[in-house]
Amino acid sequence: MINKSNLSETQAMFEQWWRRENAQRPMMQVRAWLAEPTAKFNVPENYTAEQHHSDIDIIMPRFLNEIHSMEFRCEAVPNLNINFGPGSLAAYMGSEPRFEYDTVWYTECIKCVENYQNLQFDPENYWFKRHFALAAEAKRRSNDQFYVCMPDIVENIDIIAAMRGPEDMCFDLFDSPEHVKRLIDSADDIYFEYFDRFRDLLKIGDSMMYTAFDVLGEGKVAKVQCDFAALISPEHFCEFIVPSLTKQCNQLDHSIFHLDGKECIRHLDAIMGIESLQALQWTPNPGMPDGGNEYWHEQVYDKAKEAGKAMHVFIRDGGFDDWVKTADKFVRRYGCKGTYLLFPPMSMAEAMKLEEIALEKWHA
Asked: CATH number of the domain at 35-68+78-203, please?
């Protein structure tokens, strides 16, 4: 692998983390800047937003310049995301993607949930074929020197809301609940039709997968979510969303829930009650303390710990000393087992110091 020397140890560490058995230190994503890049590539200029997300000849040199400029230490792994935005399943179902340089949006295409037919797997859909071809070419060019990440196709009501529009979807929960549930069920049914095809293409060795939020595991592995939860009550979340998430997690070997924004914290008890869900990833609102800050300990992580879930923790605010202090408070409260700390890129000296601290202080 490019600038990665401990791959087998990393794979083993992830399996320990899923089981909350990593006792020697927390799992950590540590990326250290090199004094000089190990290679340089020319990136084309003046490309469109659509090309930014979909043209392999633009994506690849940009990515290679990044991974050749750093060393991937601890559990950091060079990996390429080839997303058509978060929620490309909506495009496979009839939405037209609207590309922007920093994200992708999906046009609304459901006029009425009562009259809209169940979602159907369509292997001939233009956007699916194009996305799959991009993933295949990325995998071919990787030559096992980096992982190609499972696309973030997204699931359940998030896809239906993208196709319908969030505001109309909220009214539909009251006006046509049986049709909303019908469409969610159909989204659940087709999710793994697409998931399995990408997994078969991108799997590592016989059975491993690398997926969203820098997560690696054996078998079927996925980040699951429900960002639409920010708009609904706990009662509606339990009625419409929990059955779908439970069904999805039951079909996965490893699953991690992406909790996005403080408005979704009110659903945390219900999420943590999903027995087959193994881990939690928390993303605060922009402008709020980062995911590892002690501000979130009682609100978020105490509940995850009590439920026996592994925890995925982004630490971003401040500089190196602040990262260490935040991590130290977290590990002192929750321990290293089931803890995955992700840090911004840092200098090589800082990376070595961080690893020394982790081995000396952050162990079971």
From this structure: 3.20.20.210
Is-contact 59 47, C-beta < 8 A? no
Taken as a whole, the chain contains a residue count of: 364
- Say how far apart CA 107 and CA 90 lie, in whole Å: 9
List pLDDT tens digits, range 162-202.
Answer: 999 999 999 999 999 999 999 999 999 999 999 999 999 99
Whole-prediction pTM: 0.97
194 backbone dihedrals φ, ψ, rounded to 5°: -80, -45
Alpha helices of the chain — where are they, by DSSP H? 7-18, 49-54, 56-67, 89-92, 126-142, 156-164, 166-175, 177-202, 234-236, 242-250, 268-272, 302-306, 320-334, 348-361
* Alpha carbons within 13 A on the beta-carbon side of 66: 13
pLDDT at 364: 87
The rounded distance, in Å, linking the Cα atoms of 186 and 272 is 24
Q: What is the mean pLDDT of residues 318-324?
A: 98
Structure tokens at 230: 């920010």
Break the chain into its structural domains and give their ranges: 35-68+78-203, 214-364
CA distance 358 to 351: 11
Distance CA 357, CA 25 (A): 10
- 208-211 and 215-218: which strand pairing? antiparallel
All residues at 6 or more sequence positions from 296 whose CB lies less than 8 Å from its CB, including other chains: 282, 284, 289
Q: What is the pLDDT of residue 320?
A: 98
Q: Per-residue confidence at 59, pLDDT binned at 50, 70, 90?
A: very high
Q: Which residues pair with 56 in a beta bridge?
A: none
Q: What is the DSSP string of 202-248?
A: H-BTTTEEEETTTEEEESSEEEEE-GGGGGS-HHHIIIIIHHHHHHH
